[in-house]
Amino acid sequence: MIKAGKKASESKTPIILDPVGSGATSLRTSAAKRIIRETRVSVIRGNASEILSLRQDDSKTKGVDSIHTVEAAAESAKILAGELESVLAVTGPTDLITDGQQVIRVSNGHPLMGYVTGTGCTATVTIGAFLSVDEDPVSATATALAFFGLAGEVAAKNAFAPGSFMIAMLDALYMITPEELLRECKFEDFT
């Protein structure tokens, strides 16, 4: 990961880091911090506990599940984003995106998203896709998370349990149009 990150940094290719399980074990926490220290990370996307673990050595979590709220991580995320000169995205019921100055909250999504394994990883990949066409990491991240959350809302209209929801969400990710995203995105800018 470090080798790939250094190469991406040299070529100015955006790096999106998902510090999965940071705070759950010292290995995961130290690996995430090393990647951040040795590469040029554009966006860090994690749940509240993962983001807090990157700034506070005593912050713990339970596996990949957050034990903290997005609001509990908001101030630390803003400070850390400024220190790292990176965009931080704290995902949860309402996502928070910050570069240390600008703060955007995105409230698209559905509670069933939390019951499907891999939704956080998929959100991270979605940010990467949006960052490939929008050079502004704050805008790309906010738009990606609105799109991803909207897919959850659309999926929930046709599914009532995690298994069918997962399939419906994949379909929604494929079918949402730019016009629908523009009409349905729920952004709040707190800059």
- Which regions have little confidence, pLDDT < 50, spanning 5+ residues? none
Q: Quick one: biggest sheet?
A: 6 strands, mixed
Find the CATH topology: UDP-N-acetylmuramoyl-L-alanine:D-glutamate ligase
Helix content: 40-55%
Task: Enumerate the strands of the largest sheet in spatial order, edge to edge or round the barrel.
Answer: 1-2-3-4-5-6
Strand content: 5-15%
Overall pLDDT metric: 92
Cα-atom Rg, whole angstroms?
16 Å
Name the CATH superfamily assignment.
Ribokinase
Number of E strands: 6
Class derived from helix and strand content: alpha/beta
- CATH architectural designation: 3-Layer(aba) Sandwich
- Give the total of domains: 1
The first-to-last residue Cα distance is 34 Å
DSSP helix count?
A: 8
Morphology call = globular
Order of helices and strands: HEHEHHEEEHHHHE
Please report the first level of CATH classification, the CATH class: Alpha Beta
